[in-house]
Amino acid sequence: MYNKIIKLIIAAGIIAFAVYQFTEGYIGNGIMFILLSLIFIFLYFKNEFILLAFLRLRKQDFDGAKKWLNKIKNPESALVKKQQGYYNYLHGIMVSQSNMNEAEKYFKKAISLGLSMKHDLAMAKLNLAGIAFSKRRKNEAQKLLSEASKLDKQGMLTDQIKMMKQNMKRAAGPNQHYGAGGSLRAQKRRG
User: For the segment 106-115, what is each residue's pLDDT rounded down to a tens digit?
Assistant: First the structure.
């Protein structure tokens, strides 16, 4: 995998060669090299391994996505800040199936680094709300859930948000015990 700086150096070298081709009169070659340099500039902002991991996740292939993400050896030097956010976001999604504590760390780090799409940020906060709710941190879960609903402008997560709110209401309801329970006075009347 190329370091993010190497991608820019390669793009600058290709652009310099394109300018040389223009000065020599080879306009078609110059245009082709400019287009080629745009690929490296695109890959500077959108990491190729993260894109391939997203494609694997769309097919529900968690092992394949993990394989592509594991090819990124040092995320701090190889990725820009937003890409590091998506790196942690993808790890959080994959780990949330088995280890909630680790998934919580990944999602919090992804939110702190930033995600460029509001839908992804809403999804990360929704997952964090679910983790907080399962750990009995209801206030934190409600706060994260309201933030997720504000970020979900397109309504892609409305069903999940409604379901999470219903689950929170059910858990917050009074615990009613039917049968032999009740007050001492009621038990004496029955017995």
Answer: 888 888 888 8
State the Cα–Cα distance between residues 47 and 83, nearest whole angstrom.
Answer: 7
CA–CA dist 183, 86 (Å, integer):
55
Total-model pTM: 0.72
- pLDDT under 50 in the chain at which residues? none
Nearest to 17 by CA among 2, 36, 33: 33
Tokens representing residue 165 in the block: 């709110």
Q: What is the pLDDT of residues 31-45, one digit of tens each?
A: 999 999 999 888 888
Q: How many CA atoms lie within 13 A of 96 on its CB side?
A: 21
Q: How far apart are CA 65 and CA 53, in angstroms?
A: 4
Q: How far is CA 47 from CA 4, 5, 32, 114, 158, in A?
A: 9, 13, 22, 15, 30
- Where b means 16+ CB within 10 Å and e means fewer, 29-60 reads ebeebbeebeebbebbeebbbbebbeebbeee
